[in-house]
């Protein structure tokens, strides 16, 4: 039997990248993936990025992530990774970096424009700066992620779903996967107060919170199965 190789990178310019790698490792150790060799790598260079079948952009500080990406010449390769329709998951600051528009951004703050969403930085204000709440994500996760200890830290929210432009152009450039190319933004989860904190657009996932800071790797397992492995099997 031929073995499949799957490499998932975590952008390691700033923020909680080590925790993401640990959760990915836990997620594959806790499940049977008999025919897949996984490699989880920290990504700081274009060469490292080019090895990845999927990428996680961690939480931290989105202005710093943008600035370091610019200074290390990684911004352009990251934009190409987005255009190539590779699976990407942005958590918190990573969600901001992955979006197309930001509210409360720093002047000139570079973003990847990978999801048709507007994101408001620091949307919970001072009172609710950081909080932890158990949420039930079993409505959209195939592995029934219920009672998930969700941590929000100076978190953004998805403040608007933007029109899905440039579709035809993208279809011509890359027609290998209709499912990915034709996808619109889906709202995956809203808090009780109506704020949107999880969205999906094809093989891109965005969450306002930090699943890598909970002692629970079910969200990471869902990303591996639903985003990275499914997209590898359709290439
Ligand atoms: N926990 C986080 O990632 C916080 C995000 C931070 N407020 C930013 O704008 O980048």
Any overview of this molecule?
The protein has 235 residues and is an alpha/beta fold. The protein has a single domain, classed as 3-Layer(aba) Sandwich (Rossmann fold), CATH 3.40.50. Helix content is 30%, strand content 27%. The chain has helices at 17-29, 46-50, 62-71, 75-83, 93-98, 167-173, 178-181, 218-234, and strands at residues 4-11, 36-43, 54-57, 88-91, 101-103, 117-120, 130-135, 148-153, 157-161, 185-190, 196-201, 204-207. The strands form three sheets. The chain has a seven-stranded mixed sheet with strand order 2-1-3-4-12-11-10. The longest helix is centred in the C-terminal third of the chain and has 17 residues, at 218-234. The protein is globular, with a radius of gyration of 17 Å. 40% of the residues are buried. Mean pLDDT is 91; it is low at 168-180. It binds glutamine. Residues 59-62, 92-93, 96, 121-122, 153-154 line the site of glutamine. One of its GO terms (cellular component) is cytosol. It comes from Nadsonia fulvescens var. elongata DSM 6958. This is glutaminase. Its EC number is 3.5.1.2.
